[in-house]
Predict the structure.
Amino acid sequence: MRVVVTGGGTGGHVYPALEICRIAQEEADLLYIGSLRGMEMGACADRGIIVLGLDSGPVYNPLSLGGAKALVKLWLASFEAKKKLLQYKPDVVFSTGGYSSAPVMKAAKELGIPLAIHACDTIPGRSLRMFAKQAKVVTSTFRATARALPGCNVVRTGHPIRQELREAVQHRRPEEKFVLVLGGSGGAKFLNEVMPLVSPQLEGAKILHSAGKGQYDQFKHLVDGVPNYDMRPYLESDALADAYRRASLIIARSGSGISEYAMAKIPSILVPLPSSADDHQFHNAKEFESFGGASVLTQDVREGEIQATPESIAREIREWFADETGHAGRGLSNWDTPGATIQIWNEIKRAATK
């Protein structure tokens, strides 16, 4: 069986695709098609996965000069993808979305190659929505995704989380008042600015803060002299796994990575990125809030929502510290799906034979 995997530009699309590749490699020949500018090129090479890079990029504004150039690149990338699919003859194409996946999904549609999609967010991105109705199956991380894709075959599987993280959290030893702040590899500017102001309001708390590789140097001075505050550029896999073992609370944005908090049974305070496409981070966060696994504070002013300030964040943290009901852990455990990776792979194989 031959499978083309596509998805990328950002880790939120690449890591789930690579986790599927991990088990797919045992049964199929794989080709990963991504973007030359995305992290997928190096990530695939590190894992021994054959990868082809296309010269594609995001189309932010198709009416601008930059947008017009991006559309031309997209058309050329679609042509290259079609040539490669004709040459490789895959039984199925699997996509996790992102700008680098659109040319490949377009080529699969034109060639009549079965398509399987995994939607990582409650509201799938534009590239996935364009092809969801042509897909044999759309697997999803979130429960709410089916409502965003009417008329599509949506199967809620949960999120394909890296196996090493799942194994690591089996030996959790949460430390009292240990707060983990996660901004991802790119960092979350708002959290980098506000969290050093929160810390002095928290008696006895320890904070480990991943500020982002590109933002760390700009913000590291804010925690000079702040006791029990450890700010770092980024947490690689081993450090992140150790942090999940120790953390009693997480402060973060709310991309698809919040599925890892459910896996680790760690409650969170989520501050959605206001500019996320289709406001998907807000909807992701609200699903977690709905079953008691998180509380949501908004960076922008929203009716009916509490705005994130140093004071409101500190107050919310103290409330989580005082909560001993275990309700959050039960809700997160019910939401998490440990067999997601295998279930998605089985859906991909079924799509190939339909």
About this structure: The two ends are 14 Å apart (CA to CA). The first helix runs from residue 11 to 24. The longest strand covers residues 29-35.
